[in-house]
Write a structure and sequence with these properties.
- The chain is an alpha/beta fold.
- It has helices at about 1-10, 15-20, 40-55, 70, 85-100, 115-125, 155-160, 170-190, 200-210; strands at about 55-65, 105-110, 135, 195-200, 230-235, 240-245, 250-255.
- It has a seven-stranded mixed sheet with strand order 3-2-4-1-5-6-7.
- The longest helix has 18 residues, at about 170-190.
- It is globular.
- Residues about 10-55 have low confidence and may be disordered.
């Protein structure tokens, strides 16, 4: 049992003492959604040790559907832009994939931004999951791009040819935040088997980079987080695997 605990935390790169010291659980503000419920660290350890030994946990990563700003090439970041109609169709397709392959989603978690929240709600409707049970997790908010937000591709190239925008969140800070989000999900909801996370391209890519200790390079060619795309993190017996959904094969494929 103790070996399983140590193995899990080695995968996510944190010690028990550090997790307890930092206080990994805190309530979050959500509108018409549940709060992340605080719990004790000792309780979390007891739950996760059982999960590590006995069960697999599937965490489905859903990038929100297209927005008008995506279509126009404008950088969104923290700007709260809604889905467009094509984006809603993309998420409807993703919802059908989940309904066909994994209809029993135990928990839906979303970024606080409306494009992710609406995506989570569309999937919830398709899977008969209560929308009032959706949990908002602020750690899943998109990367902040500072003064780059709202600019088109041409405007960014002209003003910031190196893609470094004043006030943007650093890559290192985003990777730490993504790792923290993963830890909170796994430790808070270790009794769940199938969890859907609706969020954004940058933070979802950062999550798979962080939990694989950089083996999946951020922004590399291993995966593509297109609008409406689905990826799967599977945690089982101390092992983390990541795959993306293949339209060609109609299944999660190319496990890393």
């Amino acid at each position: 049992m103790e070996e399983a605990r140590i193995d899990f935390l080695s995968k996510i790169g944190r010690s028990y003492a550090k997790l307890e010291e930092e206080g990994i659980f805190s309530p979050v503000v959500a509108v018409e959604c549940k709060y992340m419920q605080p719990t004790t660290f000792s309780d979390a350890v007891d739950i996760i040790s059982f999960k590590v030994v006995e069960d697999a946990m599937n965490i489905f990563l859903l990038r929100h559907g297209e927005t008008d700003w995506n279509q126009a090439g404008r950088l969104q970041g923290h700007m709260d832009i809604p889905l467009n109609q094509n984006g809603r169709l993309q998420i409807g397709h993703a919802a059908q994939i989940l309904a066909d392959l994994y209809p029993d989603i135990d928990l839906v978690i979303t970024s606080p931004l409306k494009r992710a929240r609406e995506s989570a709600e569309i999937v919830s409707d398709r899977l008969a999951y209560e929308k009032t049970d959706i949990i908002v997790e602020p750690l899943l908010i998109e990367r902040g791009f500072g003064e780059g937000e709202g600019l088109s591709i041409a405007e960014r190239r002209e003003k910031y040819p190196d893609d470094i925008y004043p006030g943007m969140e650093s890559l290192n800070d985003m990777l730490k935040r993504a790792r923290s989000a993963f830890e909170r999900i796994v430790l808070s909801f270790a009794d769940k088997e199938n969890i859907l996370v609706a969020a954004h391209g940058a933070i979802l890519y950062a999550m798979v980079t962080a939990i694989t200790d950089g083996q999946i390079e951020y922004g590399g060619e291993t995966f593509k987080f297109d609008p409406g795309s689905l990826h799967l993190i599977r945690y089982i017996n101390g092992t983390i695997e990541v795959a993306e959904y293949s339209e060609e094969k109609s299944e999660f494929w190319d496990w890393f």
